[in-house]
Design goal:
- The complex is a heterodimer of chains A (406) and B (161).
- In chain A, 24% of the residues lie in helices and 27% in strands.
- Chain A is an alpha+beta fold and 406 residues long.
- Chain A has a 7-stranded antiparallel sheet, with no helix packed on it. In chain A, strands 12-18-17-16-15-14-13 form a 7-stranded antiparallel sheet.
- In chain A, a hairpin with a 5-residue loop joins strand 4 (71-77) and strand 5 (83-87).
- By secondary structure, chain B is of the alpha+beta class.
- Chain B is 22% helix and 42% strand.
- Chain B is built from 4 helices and 6 strands.
- Chain B has helices at 2-18, 22-27, 56-64, 112-115; strands at 35-42, 47-55, 76-88, 93-105, 119-133, 139-148.
- Chain B is globular.
- Classes of the chains: A alpha+beta (406), B alpha+beta (161).
- The A-B interface holds A 54-55, 63, 100-103, 199-208, 226, 228-229, 266-267, 332, 335-336, 339, 343-347, 349-351, 353-355, 357-358, 361 and B 38, 42-47, 49-53, 57-58, 61-62, 64-65, 68-72, 109-111, 151-158, 160.
Chain lengths: 406, 161
């Protein structure tokens, strides 16, 4: 072992003496061409959750969002109770059809009938199934050359799954959701799917960072050193370093059950509420490729989803959920537990966001940054960087080249 | 006179928070009764949500532990105007509604070479305060609800608004 020394330019820019699977070239975070390829090869072909069913509980309720960069979508619960997803683009003149973040189609628009989605621009109307049902002065204008049956909305593959989330895929020929998930949710299924969940927290932020950097904070726990809360309640507790990491097919990765000593943080207290099957003070986490994390911390479920905007800008949406049957007192307890760590004023979220923003500053194109290392091997336990390696193995498969030499 | 006391307390609380003089701020709050909350209405999920809920002791603990956390140390400036004071003579208390604008002057949250010293609008909202008047010229906060209009606050904050 040689003496530690600073490095020259030649040494700094040399790839690490590690297997190619154990480091990443930082161009994967700051190259615009790579980003555009990621949208086409990854985000337009994978399943991601876009909202929770409790955000549109009644027939004709809707929720708007975006997917795979800048594609606007609208989720609508039909009169049959089924949630469908459509591109939120009018086929006539390309306008946004539904503008509000959420609401009910039962309320009439200034220029449209209730129960339809009306484009305010020229009054074309679409029902909750995505069918075009009204074209003002259709016959006079088109004389039979174009009819309503030809101009329905573009419907997207949609499934309700894994705790009542609405999963969407832009690829009509994509693999079924269960094949994509590859059993990764099995260890959390009892908690998520025994009874209905309900959203109580929604926040979003556009952070100047690459989406992968945010996702990676959920995939490696070595950074628990950054969080005083996690040092006190986790790292210093017996069994912390035994927590197992499991990599699944298609780039998903899970950290198994651990127990957190919430009372070890001054002012903290033991958490009494849980989810079905989850022991008191238990914590499980699952990362879904390419941009979603389910974190089940005893009394609250946090689901974060990233929408990449550019190689250096990411919309992060964070949802907090409890059980639908919660009493007001139970719900208040879950909310307080959630916000202590994860809310916009929580202890951990701010630290994580600060880190990924500053990573992005340091890795800006031309900054001199070259490689990130993900080489910790600890027999698949908590500080093993197997979660990062499994992510980039899938990334490399879909992008057709290694992340260490993109 | 009472209205002046209420206004003075609200403005002094802003000065204390701006100066990060947590001890002074906590000294303006009723130790046994104070409740501090940050709330907003989310049109995305169509419900009111709470982002912080602390009693006096909980808030003190949060502030005492700040040095142990990694934070964006960019100072916040609260600019407030008391719009309405409703006195409850019988209870010797008052409700005050204050519009508040919060600015952030960058220090170390991002690229400090480029950004430190820049000021930007961070959040807007209201303080909904319940204030106890002791009849001898003293006033203390019994409750402060920060009702935010702003729902995107970027990297968030470790300190109360």
């Amino acid at each position: 072992m040689s003496e530690p020394t600073p490095r020259t330019f030649a040494q700094w820019t040399r790839p690490p003496v590690l297997p190619a699977s154990h480091f990443v070239d930082t161009r994967v975070y700051n190259d615009h061409g790579i980003f555009e390829e990621e949208i086409g090869r990854i985000f337009e072909r994978t399943w991601l959750p876009v909202c929770h069913e409790s955000e549109l509980p009644e027939p004709y309720d809707f929720r708007t969002a975006g997917i795979a960069g800048t594609k606007p979508i609208v989720m609508v619960r039909g009169p049959d109770g089924k949630i469908r997803t459509f591109l939120n683009i009018c086929p006539h003149r390309g306008n946004t059809i539904v503008r509000a973040p959420s609401g009910s189609l039962t309320r009439a628009e200034p220029s449209g009938n209730p129960k339809n989605m009306t484009c305010m621009f020229h009054g074309w109307q679409f029902d909750a199934m995505g069918r075009c049902v009204e074209i003002p002065r259709e016959e006079q204008g088109y004389q039979g050359r174009l009819c309503k049956s030809e101009v329905g909305l573009r419907e997207l593959r949609t499934e309700l799954a894994h705790g009542g989330f609405v999963w969407v895929n832009l690829d009509d020929g994509c693999e079924p959701l269960p094949d994509f998930i590859a059993g990764a949710f099995d260890f959390m299924a009892r908690e998520l799917d025994t009874e209905p969940l309900e959203i109580f927290h929604y926040q979003k932020a556009i952070i100047p960072t690459n989406y992968k950097l945010w996702h990676e904070t959920s995939r490696e726990f070595y950074h628990d050193y950054m969080h005083f809360h996690n040092r006190a309640t986790g790292m210093l507790q017996k069994g912390y370093f035994d927590r197992k990491y499991t990599a699944f097919r298609n780039g998903h990765a899970a950290t198994g059950l651990t127990t957190i000593a919430y009372e070890a943080y001054e002012g903290g207290k033991e958490r009494l509420l849980t989810f079905p099957g989850l022991p008191k003070n238990g914590w499980k986490q699952l990362n879904i490729f390419p941009a979603c994390t389910y974190s089940l911390r005893t009394s609250c479920l946090r689901v974060s989803v990233m929408t990449p905007i550019s190689e250096r800008e990411t919309l992060i949406e964070i949802r907090g959920l409890g059980l639908k049957r919660d009493t007001p007192e139970e719900r208040a307890e879950r909310i307080a537990d959630h916000d202590t760590i994860w809310g916009p004023f929580g202890r951990n979220l701010h630290e994580d966001l600060l880190a990924v923003r500053n990573q992005s500053v340091a890795m800006r194109e031309g900054s001199g940054s070259r490689y990130l290392i993900m080489a910790r091997e600890e027999n698949g336990t908590i500080h093993d960087e197997i979660g990062l390696r499994s992510y980039f193995a899938e990334w490399s498969r879909r992008m057709g080249r290694p992340a260490s030499d993109p | 006179m009472s209205r002046q006391l209420v206004e003075a307390l609200v403005y002094e609380s802003c000065l204390a928070l701006n100066a990060e003089d947590w001890k002074a701020f906590l000294g303006m709050c009723e130790r046994d009764a104070f409740r501090y909350r940050i709330v907003n209405y989310s049109p995305e999920i169509r419900r009111e949500q709470c982002w912080m809920d602390r009693d006096w002791k909980g808030l003190k603990t949060l502030l005492d532990l700040l040095p142990r956390h990694n934070s964006d140390h960019s100072p916040l400036t609260r600019h407030a105007t008391v719009y309405r004071v409703v006195l409850d003579e019988e209870a010797k208390e008052a409700d005050a509604t204050t519009l508040v604008t919060i600015y952030r002057t960058e220090l170390d949250g991002g690229n400090s070479h480029f950004e430190s010293g820049q000021t930007s609008l961070f959040a807007v909202g209201k303080y909904e305060d319940r204030i106890r008047l002791d009849g001898e010229g003293g006033a203390k906060l019994v409750r402060r609800t920060v009702r935010l209009d702003t729902r995107q606050i970027g990297m968030g904050s470790h300190v109360p608004f």
